[in-house]
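Aim 2, interim progress. The first record below pairs a target sequence with its C-alpha cells.
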Amino acid sequence: MATPNDVIDLVDSRTSELLLVLDSLADADMRAPSLLPGWTRGHVVTHLARNADALDNLFRWAETGEETPAYVSREARDADIEAGAHRSADALLDDLTAASLRWIVTARRLPELAWDRVVLHRPGREIPGSWIPMLRAGEVILHHYDLDLGYEPDQWPGGWVSLALHDAARELTDRAGEPLALRAIDSGFGVGDGGGRTVSGTQADLLAWVTRGRVGPSLTTAGDLPELGPWR
C-alpha cells in the first residue's frame, strides 16, 4: 500500500514531467482545444494551478482542524479558470510551476496527525488527509492526458492506476444504469460483484474509460459498452 509520502513523490515526478512538456509550447499551442469540452489547454493549465491552491487549503484544514474549503464556490472556481486561461504560454507555465512548488513544500512538511484528520473534499464526500496527495496525483496525470499532447493511458503509473481505479469505480452501477463489474486482464484487479455484465481490459484502459469515456483497444464486454453518466 502506498503511503502519502510515496504519492507525494509521484506527484513531484509527474509534475516535473508535465512542466517540461509545457515548456516547449508556444502561445498558439495554449489556445488549442484540449480533450475537455469547451476548454483550451490554457484552461486546463490554469485549473491545475488553482487546484494546487485548493488542495493547499485542504492541507491547512487537515493540519489545523480549521475548516478551509478547497474552493470558495463552484462559481468562483470557474471564474478563476476563465480569467487565467488566456494568458501567454510563459505566464501559464510560471503560474503552474509556482503553485505546484507551493503544494509540494506544504505536503512535505505536514505532520503525521494531518493524515488522519477528516476534511470535506466536496459536498457529500469526506476524506482523510492522507487521500489529498491522491487527489493531486489524479489531477496531474489525468489532466496531462486531457492536454492532448501524447500522454496516453498506457504511460500512466501502474500503482497509481490500481488505487485510482478502485476509487473512480464508486457509483459505477448508477452511472451505467445497470449492474456492472470491472476486471483488469493485466493485473487481476477487479471491482464489482459480477451481478451484471463485466467490462474487461487493461487497468489503464478501464480507468481511462471510467474517468474520461475513452474506449481503449483492450476493452471488451457482452454487447456494446454502456454509456456512463458523468464522473464526479
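The second target in this work package is listed in the same format:
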Amino acid sequence: MKQPGYPLPREDLKDFLQSLFRITGLYMGYIPQGSDLPDIIVGESSFCLQLKTSSEGASKCKSFADSLRLKAMQSGKPEFDLCHARLAEVVIPIVSREGTDFGTVVMGQAAIEGLSDEHKKHIRDIGSEIAPDDIDRLVASAAGIPVFMRSRLETLGSFIQQQLLEKVISHVALEDTTEYLFQKYEELMFLYAITESLSPDSGHQKALAVILDKGVQRLNARWGLFMIFEAEVDGKLELLDACGKLPWPEESGPDPFLLGIIRGCQGPSLILGPGFRDVEVAPNTGDLLVVPFRLRNSREGFLVFGWEKKGMIGDGELKFALALSSQAASVLHAMQLYQELADLLFATLGALSSAVDAKDPYTHGHSQRVAEYAVLAAQGMDFSSKFITMLKIAGQLHDFGKIGVREHILTKQGRLSESEMQAMQEHPSIGAQILGKFKPFVDIVPGIRHHHEHFDGRGYPLGLEGNDIPLVGRIISVADAYDAMTTDRPYRVKLNHGEALAELKNNAGSQFDPEVVGAFIGAIEGSIHG
C-alpha cells in the first residue's frame, strides 16, 4: 500500500477542484496529509484576501480553519460552520474506511442568505477593527461573494468526499497493481535470464552457480549455497555450490551448527540472527533464509541465503527465493533427465557399433575405443562439451557404413583385391548416407563421411585436403589410426604404444592434421603418465 501523503497527481487534483469552482464559484482548497496549509488554492475571493492582509484578520481566518478542520478529522465527515465574517465553509476529510488519511478539502467563502444589511453592518464592524481605512472597499468586495444555502453546501461536501475517495482508491489500486506487475515482470525477466544462461551440456554445477549468483544479487544477500542430502548417507548434507562472502573458511565448509539448522527445516524458514528472539545461529552468521525443495528421486535439497544486516527479508524476498528454489529443482530434474537420455543414447549407439564390430572379430571394441581416443584429443584442444559429445557419437558410429560391406571382405586374411578395396572404401559414404537420414545426426555425418581423408588430399572418398576436411573427420582419423595400429589385424601384428605414436608423428602433415596429432599425443601421454 502506498504511504499516506499526496493522494493523486497534483495536476489531476487541481483540475478536479477547478472544475468545481467553475460550476459553483466557490473557493476550493486542498491541504495534504501532514500539512497545515493549503497546497492548492482555487477561486479565493477578493474579500477574504483583503481580510488576510492584516495579521489580526489572517490569524482569525487560520484559527477558524484549523478549528473546523480538527472537527472534521475527528468526525470523519464534512463539517459546516461560519467564520468570524459570517461566511460559510465546509471542511471535507478524505479518509478511507481503513483509516488512511489522504488530506482535506476546504470549500466555501459563501454567504448563506445573501448579503443582508445586518451582514454588511457586521462586515463594517470587522473592517473598523482590522482595516479602518478601507471599509467601503471591503464591503464592495463582499458583494461578489457567492450565495449558497447550507443544505446545498453540505450536500456538495458529501459529493466531493465520495468522488475524491473513489478517485484516490482507484488511483492507489492502480499504482499497487502497476507496482505488482512491475515486480512480477522483473522477477520473470530475471528467471528468464537464468534459464537463457543454462543449457543441458553446461552441467548442473554451472546451472546452480548461475542461480545462486543471480539470487544473491537480486536479494542483496551476503552469501548463498545449495545443499542436498547425499543419496547413500542418511542425514548427511552435500554442499553442491556456494557463492558470496561465506561466514566460514572455504576449506572447512559450513559450520556444523548451521548444518543442523538447515537439516531441521521442514519448510521455508526465516532464522533471525544473534540478538533476535531466542534463536541464535552460528557465530559470524546473520539472518538466514532456508528454502527446502524436493527432487524427482525424492532427495531433498536446500537453497540457503545469508544476510549480514538484519531485516532484509520481506514477503517479496521470500516469494523470490521460493521461485528460485523451484527453478533449481527444475534444473536438477532436467539435468537428471538429460543424463538418463544421454546414457540411453550412448547405450543404443554402443549396441549399434557392437553390431558392426561383431562382423569382424579383429575389430571388436574398435568403435568404442576410437570414440574414447577422439574425446581425449578434443579435451586437449579445449573444445566445448557440446562439440565433444558430438565427437563421441561420431567416433562410435564412424564405421557404421561397414554394415553394408560384405563380411568376407571385412574378415579376409591377407591383402584385399582392387575391387575389394574399392568396396571397403565405400563404407564412409554408406555410413553417411544411412545416418544422414536421421536429423539428430546431421552434425556428425561430415565427420563419418570424411574420416579417411588425408591432410595432403590423397585420402577418400573425395580427396579433400587440409582444413577442407571437417574437423570431426580429422580428429577421428587420428584416433582410428592409433587404435588400428595398436590392435592385431589379419594382415599384420599390432604396434606398441611408442611405435604407433611415432607413426602418427611421421605422417603428421601428410595423412594427419599435425595440430590434431600434437593434441592427441599430449593428451594420451598425459593420461598414461598423469
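The beta strands are 27-31, 40-42, 79-82, 88-95, 101-110, 223-229, 237-244, 269-271, 288-294, 300-306. This observation will shape the mutagenesis plan for the next reporting period.
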